[in-house]
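Inputs:
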Amino acid sequence: MTIRNKAAIVGIGQTEFSKDSGRSTLHMALESILEALADAGLEPKDVDGVVKMGANDDIFEIDLLRSLNLPNLRFFNEVPHGGGAACGTIAGATAAVVSGMADVVITFRSLNERSERRFGESSAGGGMTHWRQYTLPHGLVTPAQWVAIYGQRYLYEYGYDTTELGHVSVLTRKHAATNPHAMMYERPITLKDHQNSRWIAEPLRLLDCCLDTDGACAAIVVSAEKAKQLKATPAYIAAAAQGTGSRAEMMTSYQRESLARLEESESTAAVIYPLAQLEPKDIDVAEIYDPFTPMVLMQLEAYGFAERGKSPELFHNGKLELDGELPFNTHGGHLGEGYLHGFGHIVEGVRQIRGTAVNQIANAKTCLVTSGVGVPTSAIILSKEPY
Amino acid sequence: MASLPRPFPQPDRDTTSFWEAQNEHRLVFQKCSRCGHVRYVVGPLCPECHSFEHEWTESSGRGTIYSFTTVRHQTHPAFVPPYTVLLVEMEEGPRLIAQLRAPEGVEVKIGSPVHIEWEDHEKQSLPVFELDA
């Protein structure tokens, strides 16, 4: 048995993305879920499954259940590892609907990451345990700082300077600039802007870092069979996969052989392409999780779009532009649209497959969406047609 | 930025020996009694051969810079930038995170040799690195 094209995303919803939502994360989650259900032509009473992201979440599932009045859930699950969980929720939902454990599964992410709890500031104090005790007491306390260690090593091993990071940011912001939903709508940047932006943690500058965002997104997963009965154009889930790496820590897996590559993403790629019976060259659009620019370069290599150390070339030859061979982060990603912990990428992937994106790619038939990096991760491949 | 104490390790049943050794200014690693694998970070099981048996082996305190970052944006009240955090590959194999103690403006390069020094805090001594002369 395979899951290939046996499930589909049939509903999507999202709030505005802002610096201050003015309401609770639960409130926004409910808005985006109701929008996604309406988009699919479904109602809360149809829901019998929930898969949510586990880490850094302010929302207790029990509050969600009470708010939506969901007394008949058959399947509920939580995926760990921060942003690595985003596509993992779709993977869990897929497993549930393909196996018959649920019919209609809600997935979502809701954050007041700018107005309430900024991931870019540390609240660590007092006694540290687990993997954190080896890094936080030394002043390495935020994701940007943890990733800087990887980024520095990547640049060193392949002999690049930070302009190669800048190209990632410039292209992503270019796509955000034509997306009215993006926090950085009509605000493109130049490479000079990138190079002039202030240091955060070398080699990362401000414009290498994702935005802080308030907002929510949701997606509804049903079986392919059920999708045929619904009004929305389905985005078939050609494949969904999760992956881990060696000597794992949360973003500080510094004991592993190489810090110039992402083992978790490579593991996920090794599973997802065979599952989809596709190869990297078959992907029409790529929505790549972009917390910090070095992680984009390493992911493009992990998912087979460039040899190791060669992904910067993709940004030089126009390949990732909207009219290129592999349009990339068409919505503007975390660097330009907003930081929804990977869920904005999922929603945009569905729009590309439906043909309703603001930066729509003509004839987009397949879309790879990836999730958080430097942690156990996940990805999905969406397809316009079941095959 | 709200007041917040500097984070420190909180020794537990797996890590107490490791942190107590640091209070004696010794960096120690676990060495598997069965297969000899030197492991870090600290844990109850050898990830190579899955033996629980281990001994503690003392590091020479010498290594080379494997990667680093200079932090220039403050994100925690207890850590005031600029400061440089090194990832040092120790002679025994494990890579250790600790701050660089050096005059400001000194050039930091991957591959440079460093050695361990110690900073005593109220409850826990922590390593820092200095560049070899």
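Residues 16-23 of chain B form the longest helix (8 residues). Flag for discussion at group meeting.
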